[in-house]
Known about the structure:
By secondary structure, the chain is α/β, with parallel strands linked by helices. The protein has 2 domains: 4-240, Cobalamin-binding domain (Rossmann fold); 269-494, pyruvate-formate lyase- activating enzyme, CATH 3.80.30. It is built from 14 helices and 20 strands. The chain has helices at 4-13, 50-53, 57-67, 82-90, 120-129, 171-187, 196-204, 287-290, 299-313, 331-342, 358-366, 384-389, 396-408, 427-448; strands at residues 40-46, 72-78, 109-113, 145-149, 165-167, 210-211, 216-220, 226-231, 239-240, 270-273, 275-276, 295-296, 317-321, 348-350, 375-380, 413-420, 453-460, 474-478, 486-488, 496-497. The strands form 6 sheets. It has a 6-stranded mixed beta sheet with strand order 2-1-3-4-5-6, covered by helices on one side. It has a 5-stranded mixed beta sheet with strand order 15-16-17-18-19, with helices on one face. The chain is globular, with a radius of gyration of 24 Å.
Amino acid sequence: MLNQPLKDTVTRLLPQVQTPAQYIGGELNCVVKDHRQVQGKLCLAFPDTYTLGMSHHGLQVLYTIMNNDPRWACERAFTPWLDFEALLRKHNLPLYSLETFTPLRDFDLVGFSLQYEVCYTNLLTMLDLGRIPLHSKDRTLADPLIICGGPGAQNPEVLAPFVDIFVIGDGEESLPWLMEKWMSLRGDKRALSRKREEVIAEIVGSTTWAYAPMFYDPELHADGTIAAIHRTRSDVPREILACNITQDFDDIKLPTRPVVPFVQTPHDRIAIEIMRGCPWQCRFCQSTVIKRPLRVRSVETIVQAALESYRNTGHNEISLLSLSTSDYPDFEELVKRMHEVFNPLGVNISLPSLRVNQQLRSLPKLVKGVRKSGLTLAPEVARDDMREQIRKKIKNDDLFEGCREAFKNGWQRVKLYFLIGLPGERSVDLDGIVDMAEHISAIGKEVRGRYVEVTRISGTACRRANIFSGPASICASAAATGRSRSSSTTSSAACWKVF
């Protein structure tokens, strides 16, 4: 059910903006449904640009799950660049979904994925452009339900006035449940005489992982930090817990027909999540806390999903995603199977987030013969003694020997992630980052006859509060080119208690 008049107007404006293909939809594998044939419409709104949003694996997962249900039409929207935003405002046009050019205000539910704090203002921009009241208190039952999930939902108070419900934990089961519950209550004849807040209260009162800020009152310390959060009504949860998938992880369908963007994106490849969670408990890491318990997919499920995705997209690279890919229980078997299946097809296998351990030394030989991409490693700090303090039990010797074996087997680039600003940090720890990068590059020269490319990504780690709990600061990347990009993460527990 295409909004043709809006599409025609937008099409006439597109020659005035950069990268117009990100605003037209119609990509390979996108799903367009007739709104007259479904029970409800939801929009997955990513509060950042199209290229970044289309690189996000979680969006593809939820898009697939929701569109596999014939009751719902699930569409996408992204934050426009400044040039297109200016045109939308100048011509009084609403922000719309890519599938059918439906204004955001006309959806039943709009869900935002909060991946980092710097995108929070983009959420407000999208609500404003989508003609949705900014504050939750100003919305009625005629307006869409505004929900947020992702790592940023662990620190919800910043956006509390603007969001109806924060979803804590996994989205694969919580989003379908929320959509069904909202549509059921909203369509109930009793809803005609009920206030919107009563319907939302019934939703969050029916589960333990949905947080509706309108029903809680934060108590603050003198410095502005939260001392406690008090309920304002008794029928909402006292304790907010994370939603964890109850099904077998193999039963959660992977997006084997991902939408293929018209424009190049940072992660222009197939992504297969092989494992969720991490067996380690590094003191600085948010994900190891919020993604518990550890869940893995079988080797055969991964290989078949990767093969089906390749056939449906034509991508020539597959990324095996997890917090620590080399900690996958059947890692060697998986790498060998991927090599057997995809080496004849000329498809590259990317192994991000590799843990520096003894296994790193044998990895290059496992994937010998496959076209090589760069190695991504996270030593976090440059010295072994400092690494003990953050409970990251890896050794520099394993890192150096692993890189040596990689260079022998054809790798040409290494990307290293570091944390700066850790409690007890010394000047020698910072100098060690440069020394480590230079040492690895020199190893590359020994093996390959020339220096290899080593990129150092450095980020401020955390503030010392209750042993590394609390918000993390902005991360800055410092690549060999001297250019930088900023992002940030948050760190908090996966369970809140209110009184």
